Amino acid sequence: MREEDDFKTSRMLVVGGHTHTVHLLRQVLDIMGVQRVVTTVLANMAIDLLLTEVFSAVFCDSSIAESDPESFANAARRTPDLVNPLIPIFLVCSGPRRGDVELARDTGFNGLLALPLSAATVTRKLKAELLNPRSFIASRQFFGPDRRNAVRSWRGVDRRVQQPRKVKIKAPEI
Hints:
35% of the residues lie in helices and 18% in strands. By secondary structure, it is of the alpha/beta class. The chain has one domain: Response regulator (Rossmann fold, 3-Layer(aba) Sandwich), CATH 3.40.50.2300.
């Protein structure tokens, strides 16, 4: 199966403040084979769309109009009657810094995409979230994907369960 066929039936929502970022995302999604892309500039319009329509993923520009990414993520996860509160949401930043990464991790985004975007990176991250979704954590302070990115499987000897071994101890010299 070709990569273009993987996303043919997908429907993506792009929420952006900069027209350049929205245009770039549309081009990347077009290269990936996504035929149905809905774009909006306003965060409240995006939440209204998430209340009534089904999307495969959401891409949110860090310069979203009339809002900030943190407020948008909270609304996209916690607004009652959402069609899918577990939808993958990606934060798109130009020149992300540590604070941007922590913001994405701590507010419920599934991942962060740095500009300039490549179709390979977007495809890899989108496939990871759609094919192997992480479990979600729900608490008063946080609702979003588990912050641990991957299940780590150790392929070595598990030294925590080794049997006790006999050790010879020399008597101290006086």
